[in-house]
Amino acid sequence: MRCQDPRQCGQKLIRRQPLEPREESEILLSRHLNILHLVVLGVGSTLGVGVYIVVGEVALFVAGPAIIISFLVAALSSVLSGLCYAEFGTRIKWTSSAYHYSYISVGELWAFIAGWNLILSYVFATASVSKAWSYTFDGLIGNHISQALQRGFSQYMPDYLARYPDFIALAVVLLLTGALTLGARELLLVTRVFTGINVLVLIFIILSGFFKGDLHNWKLTEQDYTSITPGSGGLSSLGPLGSGGFVPFGLGGILRGAAICFYALVGFDAIVTKEQEALNPHRSIPWSILITIFICFLAYSGVSAALTLMVPYYLIHPESPLPQAFLYIGWDVARYVVAVTTLCALTSRLQSIFFPIPVVIRDMARDGLLFRKLASVFVHTGTPIMAIMSSGNIAGLLALLFKFSDLVDLMSIGNLLVYSLVSFSVLVLRYQPEQTLSKKEEIDISRHEASPSEPVPEARTSRILKTLWFPNSTIPTLISGQIVYGCTSLLVLLLTILSVILAQWSSQVFSGDPGLTTVAVLLLLLITGVTVIIWRQPKDPGPEYFKVPALPVLPLVSIFVNVYLMMLMTPRTWTQFGIWNAIDHSSSIPPRMRCQDPRQCGQKLVHRQPLKPREGSGIPMTHHLNILHLVVLGVGSTLGVGVYLVVGVVALFVAGPAIIISFLVAALSSVLSGLCYAEIGTRILWTGSVYRYSYISVGELWAFITGWNLILSYIVACASVAKAWSSTFDSLIGNHISQALQKIFFQYMPDYLATYPDFVALAVVLLFTGALVLGARQSALITKVFTGINVLVLLFFMLSGFIKGDLHNWELTEQDYKSITPGSGGISRLGPLGFGGFVPFGLDGILRGAATCFYALVGFDVIVTKGQAALNPRRSIPWSILITIFICFLAYSGVSAALTLMVPYYLIHPESPLPQAFLYIGWDVARYVVAVTTLCALTSRLQSIFFPIPEVIRDMARDGLLFQRLANVFAHTRTPIMAIMSSGNLAGLLALLFKFNDLLNLMSIENLLVYSLVSFSVLVLRYQPEENLSKKEEIDISECEASPLEPVPETGTSNILKTLWYPINTIPTQESHQIIYGCTLLIVLLLIILSLILAQWPSQVFSGDPVLTTVAVLLLLLITGVTVIIWRQPQDPTALYFKVPALPVLPLVSIFVNIYLMMLMTHRSWTQFGVWNAVGFVIYFGYGHSLAGKNHQQPPASTFQTLDKNIPDAESS
Fold it and tell me: CA 62, CA 565: separation in Å to the nearest integer?
C-alpha cells in the first residue's frame, strides 16, 4: 500500500486534476443574473457578524476609532484576492470553490491544504456567527442567560476557553444542522429581503451616529478616561485607553485590526460560484466583486465611525456593540429595533456560511482526500448526511466552548491562507502549458529530463540562465511552467520571511537596525529579481475571459499582504491553527500517499469485518460447559483486586460505609453491559473479544478505539494487580520494603507518581511476562482451586465482621473522629471524616465510588468467549453473566459491610485493608491467613488478566491496525513474543511508577468506554440489514443520488418525517440503518452533554437553577424523541440465541450510566486517558488505517452464510 518509488509519492502530491467539468456541472443553466443580482448576492453573503460584532471587538481592544483605516486595509487586500477569484471563476466555469481551483492548478497537496482550511474557515465562521446570534439574543432579553451561566460555570472554565459554555449558540448550530439534514435549501429570496432590511438599518445607524455623535470621542485623553464611571449608560466595564486620540493603539493596532477585519469581508466568493448563470461573466463577475467589497467597506467604515462617535471606544460593549450604543445615548426603542435586525442578518449570514460546508467536504471525499464515507448522500433528501453531521457537531462544539475573539482570529487566518493559495494558483495557471490541463496529455517528466545526479555542462548552465531572461518559446512550455512554479514557491518563502521580520521587528527595520534592515533590503532585491524572471516567461494565450491585470505583480502583492496580516495574529491563534493543520497532515495525507486506489482511503474507516470465523476458529468444539462451569469461570476472573484493595481505597477516601450502595450501582451498570455482551457473544460465537464484536458491527475506526482501550484496560489491570500483590506481600512482612524504598526515593518522586518505585510489582509483572514468553498457559484447574479458596476466606471474613463488628461504626461523629489516636491497632494515619454517619461523603461520594467500584466487577466478559463450548448458549451465557455479577456483588458488599463494621472507615488501611482490619480487632493469626489467601487470589487474577493481552494485540496486528511485527509468533513456544514483551514492559513500567489509585481510575474509565461501545454495537447490529454484512453489495450512495444542491420539494421533507415514524418496510433497509446510526450517534452526544451537566453541577440542576435545569430537561426531551424514532424502525427478524430485552432502551440506559460514571472521574484520569488515545490515533492514522485495507481487498463471496451456523432455526427459537 505504500509508495514503492519515492518519485511516485512526490508526483501524487503535485498531481493536478484535469480541467474537465464534473457530471453534475453539465446541466445547462440560463444566464439571467446581471451585476445588480450578483452584488445583492455578494453583499448578503458578506454583511453579517462583521458589522454587528467584530466592529465592537476591534474598536475596543485593537484599533480604537482607527478601525476605519483597518477596514480600508482589509478592503484593499480583499480587492486583490477578489480579482484573483474573478479570473478563476471565469476561466474554470464548473468549479465552485478555492479547493477545485487549487487542485486544477497547483496539485493535490496544495488543494488539500486549501480545502482543509476552507472547511476550517467555514466551520469557525458558523461557530462565531452562532455565538454572535447568542450574544445579540441575550442582550435583547437583558443578559440574563449569560449572567446565569457565568455564575454556574465560570469557576470551572480554563482561561483558554470561553467564560461559560454557550448553550444557545450550540442549539442554533444543531438546529441548522438538523434543517440541512432534512433537506433544507438556501433561499435566495430570504437572502435578498434580509439584505435589504440589513442595509436600511445600517444606514439608520450611520445617520444616527452622525446626528448623535461627538467628535470629541476621536480626541479622547487620559483625563476623559479617568473621569468615566463604569456602569453609566448600561456599560459595565472599561476597555484599554492606549494613547488616546484617533489612533490610540498606533500603526500596529491598525494593522492587527486589519488582520481581524479581513474576516468581516469574507463572502464575496459566493459571486464566483454563479458564473454559469451570470450575463457576460468576464465583465459582470469582477465588477460585482469590486462593487460588493466597496459597498461592504462603506457599510463597515460608516458603522465604525458612527459607533466610535456615539460611544468612547473604551466603553464599547464587545458582545453587543450597536444595541448597547443606542442604550448609551438614550434611544432605547432603537436598541430593540437594531437587535432584532441583527438577529435577522445573522440568521441570513448563518445559512450562507453553513450550507457550503458539506459541499466542500463531499467534493474532497469524492476525490479521496477525506474519508470516502463523507460523500455518502441520503436517499430522500439528496444531502451528504455524514458531511453535514460531522461539520455541524464540530461547529457546535466550538460555539459551545471557544471565545468569540479566538473564533474570529482563526477564521481570519484560515481565509487569509485560502486567499493566498488562490492568488498562487492564478499565477501558476497563467504560465502553464495547455497540455498539462488535460489528463490525457500528462507527461512523465522523468522520461524527458536528465537525472539530477548527472553533471551539467557549463554551456548548458549558461543556456538555462539565458532561458530565464529570453525564453525560447512564445507560448508556455513544460520547462517554463516548471520555472514559474519553482520561482513562485521561492517567492512565497521569501515573502513569508519578509512578513515575519516586518510584523515582529518593524520598528527596528525602519529605524535602520543594521542587521534587520540589511536582511529586509536583500529580501526585497531577491523578490524583485525572481519576479522579473516570472514576468519574462510566456503566458497562456488562452481564450478571452477576465484576466488579473499587472501579472505577476498583483497576485504577488496579494500574497504578501495576506501573509503579512497572518503574521500579525496572536501566538494562541497560531497554536490553534497549527493543531488544526497537524490533524490534517497526520490523519489524511499519509494514508493518501500510501493508497494505490483512492476509493480504499475513504472506506477503511467504516469498513466492517466479514462475519465469518477466522482460521483456526472453525475447529469443532464439544458443548460441555454448563451454567455452573461458566459461573465458576466468571467469578474466578472477576473476584480479585477489587475485594482485597478497592474496597479499602473507596471506603477510606470516597464513600465510607456507603460503599455498599456504590457496589450496588456498579453492579446494576454491569448487568446492563452484561446483557449486551450476552447478545453479541451468542450472536457471533466464534469471536473472542469485544474488539472483534465492534469490527463486525460498527466498523474499523470504532474497532480500533475499542481494541486500543481494551489493551490499556488489560495492561493497567495487570499493573494494578501487581501493585496490590506487592502491597499485600509487604504488609505480610511488616512493611519493611515500602519503608526502605520511601526513605531512599521519596524526595525524587514527583506528586503525580507513586511515593516510591515499586520494584516488587515490577518483578511480578516481569516474572509473568517471562513465563508467557516461554509458553506457559492459563490453567483452568488453578483458577477453580483458587476461586474456591477465595470464596471460603471471604465468607470467613464476612462472618468475622458481623461477629466482631460494631454498628456504631456506621454512625460515627466528629467527636469519635477527634478521640482517635493514630497508631492504635496498627493504624498509622487518619483518613477524611466527611459528614460522618453511614453516608459521610453524600450522594456524590456514592456515585464516585460506583465509578471506581466498576473496575472490581470487570471480568464477566470471559464467559462470552466460551460461547462455542457452552451447553445451550442462548440460556447459559446470559444467566451465567447475571449470576456471576450477583455473586460478586454479594461478595463485595458483604466484605465492605464487614470491613466498615470492624474498623471506622477513616482508619481503614488503603493498601492492605483486610489483614490490617484483623490486626485492628486483635486477631493476629487471621491476619496472616487472609494475607496469604489474598496473594493466592491476586496471583490467579493476574494470570486471567495478563494472558489475554497478547491475543488482542496479535489480532489487531493481523488486521493491520497495529504494527504487523507484533503478530509474529515464536516458532518453539507458539507465542506472540513481540506482543507479550511490549505489553509486559509497559505494564511493568506502570506498576513501577504509578499510584494504585490512578491505575484504578484509569482502568475504570477504559472499561466503561469499552462497555459503552459494546452497547452501541448491539443497538446498531440489531437494526442492520442483511446486505450490509456483505461487502459485495455495498453501494456508493454518492454515485446514485441527486446532487444535494438540487431543490427538494416540500412534500419530500414531510415524507421523510413520516418515514421516521411510519417506516415503509418491516425489515431493516439501508435507509433505516442510516437513520439508526445517525440517531444513535446523536443520542450518545446528547447523553455525554447531559452526563457532564449532571456530574459537574447536580445540585444546581436539582435545586431548580433556571438555565441548567432547562438545559437538562431539553436534553431529556430530545433524547426521548430520538429514542422513539429508533424504536419505530424495523429490527432484524433473524432468530438469535439471546436478544437484549427492551430495545432500544436498555442499551441506551447502559450507555448513559457508563458515560455518567466516566464523567465522575478525576481530571488526572482523563488526562492519562487522553494521552493514551492520542498515541493510539497517531498509530492508527499514521500506520494502521492504510495497512488495514490490505486485508480487506478480497472479501468472501458470502459473509452471511457463516452467520446461519450460529443462529437457531425458527423452530428452536
Answer: 14
